[in-house]
Amino acid sequence: MASYEKALNEFDTFNPVRNLWRNVLIVAISDAIKIKNNIIKFKEFYEKRRFHEIDYVTLPNSDFAKVCEYAELDHNLVRKKIIKTLDNMEKNYDKDNMPSMPWKRLYQSKGINRESSGNYTTVSKL
């Protein structure tokens, strides 16, 4: 516990108001990411819709700037990183980063085998 207090005193002071506004930003950003994920998955359904959650964190507005100010963050830098993250989500969605055989059962993998050691502990074998 002492090392935590020492680190807290050396680098930053505890500010509950700043932490509150940072949590507000976290919730706003996570909402935008969840919606962007649904938009990417179901393009046809969400094609012509506009979402305030994404607009709030990507388009310049005074509310977002004020929340970032209360959180002691630069709103332009935060917005740029959010836009970059959302763009990367869209770019990487179509890439084939899934396993070649996603239906392969866990017991068929090399790390796990279903062979018994002979020591049965289940009731059915007694």
Describe what this molecule looks like in 3D:
It is built from six helices and no strands. It is mainly alpha-helical. Helix 2 (16-41) packs across helix 4 (52-58). The protein starts with a helix and ends in a 33-residue tail after the last helix.
Number of strands: 0
CA-atom Rg in angstroms: 24 Å
Order of helices and strands: HHHHHH
Tell me the fraction of residues in β-strands, as a range.
under 5%
Helix content: 55-70%
**Termini, distance in Å?**
52 Å
Low-confidence stretches: none
Instruction: Compute the average pLDDT.
Output: 79
Q: What's the tally of helices?
A: 6
Largest sheet: none
Output the structural class: mainly alpha
Shape: extended
Provide the descriptors you would attach to this structure in a database record.
0% strand, 60% helix, mainly alpha, 126 residues
Strand and helix layout:
Blueprint: H1 2-11, H2 16-41, H3 43-46, H4 52-58, H5 62-70, H6 75-93
Summarize the structure in short.
By secondary structure, this protein is mainly alpha-helical.
